[in-house]
Amino acid sequence: MKIALINPPSPYLANDSAYPPSGLMYLSASIEEMGHSAVIIDLTGGINWEDKLYEIEADLFGITCVTPNFNTVRKIAELLPHDRPIVIGGAHPTFLPEDTLNNIRCSAIVRGEGEIAIKNLLKDYEFGKLKKIYDGGLVNIDQIPKPARHLIDLHKYSPGGVKTTPIYTSRGCSFNCMFCSKVTGRNYRAMPINRIIEEVKEVIDLGFDYLLFGDDNIGIDDERLRHLLNELKPLGIKFRLNQDVRNISEETLSLAVSAGCTEISFGIESGSEMMLRLMNKKTSVKDNIKAIQLTKKHGISTKAYFVVNFPGEDETTVRETLDFAQIAKPDKFLVSAFAPLPGSPIFHNPQKYGITWMSKDWSDYYLVGKDGSFKPCFRTAELTFEKQIYLHDLLYNGLKQICLESPKHKPISLNLRENRYANI
């Protein structure tokens, strides 16, 4: 049996094809493990994807769906053969299964992590008894096969001319930030270091030059991270990772440099103590400044993620964030406009946070668009559409000026944060 897994385009991004679709590579490996054939159809990169759909032949189609891609996924499903089953997976069907089933032409949906669910689904399909909903839950990541990178064209994924691939050493995030939705749950699960090193060696053999460790927080276990860095050292490959500001030390940073780390990204979110409390970040402005400055001291480029327009934001808190950036001086930044994504605490209880209106058009729920643009998808008494645009532009333009001073400056990242728009 041949299964085609489709990665939809993201028209709101300036470059939606920077990195391979990691979630689909994991699913493909599980499909191949069953003896079936898998193909990954990546519709990103500005191609004429509607024409490409007519060329696909498969017994069953799977499409990954994050909230802002909902309308695009619906169109893709309509264009696929009507005599073949279509399965929708990803963040949106995980948190809003009925909305997906009722508004996209599909035979079934998969909620949560898909590696085990896809096997159960294919067994049911072979016996002609496909269910509407398959709950994948949280898988034992020690037992899933390594992602099927041989199915993708590595030359397509070369941001800046560097062949780059995501790699994951763990799943889950034990923190509970108010803006975040987690397909991979709060239960932190780590892969054995020897398995990770095997995968890195395979990636090098495939011709990739650079790794993006996509874990929500790879350093939640500092001893494990140091073990990983020691094992990476002799392999000679460069990489970047995401880190929590509370888990930064001189020892780990020195080791990271010697292992090949060129950049660390931090979820700073705000330079306002009040906003950090409202977001339930459990960090402080002091923590954030220390992490960035210590990382820069070791010659590692820093990238700061910020959220603007979270309920409670005003001009004072935005200017506090700019004051923070002037002190910390991150090399790069990304500004995400807050959106109450399905699965986040705010989406399911908007009144508690003063939200009086939310858009019913899922395509409005993107965090960052081309050139940093965005469209407000909610409103509070204080955060009108006009106010949100003003605050966003104030922060974005201010950060751009501050980061221009850095020799490693890059004003905006072109990829979305994995923990907010998870494909797994």
Key features?
424 residues; alpha/beta; Rossmann fold; TIM Barrel; 2 domains; six-stranded parallel sheet; 13 helices; 16 strands; disordered C terminus
Record the strand order, biggest sheet: 2-1-3-4-5-6
Could you say which overall geometry the principal axes of the C-alpha atoms support?
Answer: globular
What is the tally of helical segments? 13
> Uncertain runs with pLDDT below 50, 5 residues or more?
411-424
Class of secondary structure makeup: alpha/beta
Oligomer: single chain
CATH topology of the largest domain: TIM Barrel
Q: How many domains make up the coordinates?
A: 2
CATH homologous superfamily title of the largest domain? Aldolase class I
Q: Estimate the helix proportion, in percent.
A: 25-40%
Give the strand tally. Answer: 16
- What string gives the helices and strands in order? EHEHEHEHHEHEEEEHEHEHEHHEHEEEH
Average pLDDT score: 91
Q: Beta-strand percentage?
A: 15-25%
Write up this protein.
With 424 residues, this protein is an alpha/beta fold. Helix content is 33%, strand content 19%. The chain has a six-stranded parallel beta sheet with strand order 2-1-3-4-5-6, with helices on both faces. Strands 7-10-11-12-13-14 form a six-stranded parallel beta sheet. The chain has a two-stranded antiparallel ribbon with strand order 8-9. Helix 3 links the parallel strand 3 and strand 4 (86-89).
